[in-house]
Amino acid sequence: MSGPLVLTDEIRSALESRAPVVALESTIITHGMPWPQNFETARRVEQEVRTHGAVPATVAVLEGTLHVGLNDRQLADLAQARGVAKLSRADLPVCMATGGTGATTVAATMIAARLSGIEVFATGGIGGVHRGAERSFDISADLRELSETPVTVIAAGAKAILDLPKTWEVLETLGVPVIAVGQNVLPAFWSRTSDHAAPLRLDRAADIAAAHVMRGAMGLQGGQLIANPIPEADEIPASELSTAIDTALAEAESQGIHAKDVTPFLLARIFDLTGGRSLEANIALVLNNARLGAGVAREISSIRQEIASGANASL
After folding, report:
1. Is 234 annotated as contributing to ligand binding?
2. 51-61, pLDDT tens digit by residue?
3. In this structure, are strands 65-68 and 224-227 parallel, antiparallel, or unpaired?
4. Number of domains within the chain
5. What is the three-class DSSP state of 47?
6. Active site (catalytic) residues
7. Chain segment 62-86, per-residue pLDDT in tens
8. Which burial class, exposed, middle or buried, applies to 64 when counting CB atoms under 10 A from its CB (0-12, 13-18, 19+)?
């Protein structure tokens, strides 16, 4: 059995000095995009985090070890690997115990972030309640993780292939703050807006950071979901996507695709049905979330350093 957790020297040093760090998932590399766009996007997202003043920490399990931070060779190997496991809360420890290799979902990345002391995680979109869940009970573990693990997650809402009304209802029941950035409605992944009013709205990274720190100070369990709309120039209006989504869902059902295989299948089919526009939008929204994630991480770092300075001054 390999060691459970490995941080790069850069990330360990940043955390020890309370410098800003942003966790990044790896299923977008292995299950969300084709080669070589997946590798190129992973590098661009990491660079976006760096450009905006934080250290990127891409998470994956490699031969049984949970890596927080990957080098270019590891990223390239993962991007081209076949048969990589898609890891959530339930199967993360099993993969590690058996020496496997796997990409982390939102839930598993949040767990790795918590274990490492990273407070901010930027991704594309979270998982949620799948359409037809009243029959299948197919609900992503991401929702429960958000209610239990104290990490701020920056996403462009939940993936548009999901049952969005039910997803928001479950998050409300679980007590997860769902905060829209700069608008009064929730984004819908590839689309900036939806028919769903935002329960909460914040416009500045500083306010998002303050809310995160306040939750911790109050001893409240869980994190917060920051719904960051895709840039206007890159969005695909929901009205244009609806036909593609409906077609892909019907194909998945007719082919008996279910559980963890559903999301990768749907994303691949919607890519085909939109002539590649969904992938372009996906890349744009991930980069946008990385920028905001870096900003929030910087603000949290500043608050933590002020708290530490105040405590030292009182000694």
Report:
1. no
2. 999 999 999 99
3. unpaired
4. 1
5. helix
6. 25, 159
7. 999 999 999 999 999 999 999 999 9
8. middle
